[in-house]
Design brief:
Elements lengths: L6 H9 L5 E4 L8 H11 L4 E6 L3 H11 L3 E4 L4 H12 L7 H8 L5 H7 L3 H10 L5 H7 L4 H15 L4 H10 L5
Parallel strand pairs: 1-2, 2-3
Helix pairs in contact: 3-6, 7-9, 8-9
């Protein structure tokens, strides 16, 4: 078992020999997590990826599962659930929690959850930075984008989520527990 504290050391470890399971906190510093997972899935297709996070699974889990991760687990999960998730993933199956399974089965969900699903991964990354309060220039630096591109994504996000300002965006993000 190895541990990496940043993206470069993680990618170096993945390249140095076989890795069966990568447990990834989606809050790595400077991480563009969706692009990172896409890269990992492309370069190391046999590596099973489990997202282990504090972020609300109802919004993020489906998005991560679509990028190819094998499971999504909240950090406040009990030991039994963690062991079950690891066993499921190592058996080649996808792990989802009971609460996520209930959510997916329940069609009477706030329709704005589906609005978050309408965002591209890049737009969603911009949202995650906006709700942290970062200015456009800082978001551009963090996500390695032009400021004009960040502004374009922000405008699209506001329209798709039907919010008119940053306060409404932050309020919506808090409602769906995107902020912790």
């Amino acid at each position: 078992m190895d541990e990496a504290t940043d993206i470069d050391s993680m990618m170096q470890r993945l390249g140095s020999g076989p890795v069966d399971l990568l447990i990834l906190d989606n809050n790595l510093p400077q991480a563009e997590s969706f692009r990172l997972i896409t890269r990992i899935r492309k370069e190391y297709p046999t590596v099973h990826v489990l997202i282990y996070t504090v972020h609300n699974e109802l919004i993020l889990a489906g998005r991560y599962l679509r990028t190819g991760v094998r499971g999504y687990l909240l950090k406040d999960s009990g030991e039994t659930e963690v062991l079950g998730a690891l066993s499921t993933i190592m058996a080649g199956k996808i792990y989802i929690s009971d609460s996520l399974a209930r959510h997916l089965a329940d069609q009477k969900v706030d329709p704005r959850i589906h609005s978050f699903d309408s965002l591209s991964n890049r737009e969603f990354e911009v949202v995650l930075q906006l709700v942290k309060g970062y200015p456009i220039a800082e978001i551009a630096r963090i996500l390695n984008m032009n400021t004009s591109t960040v502004r374009t994504h922000k405008n699209r996000v506001m329209k798709k989520l039907k919010v008119s300002n940053s306060i409404e965006l932050i309020t919506l993000a808090q409602k769906f527990q995107l902020l912790r």
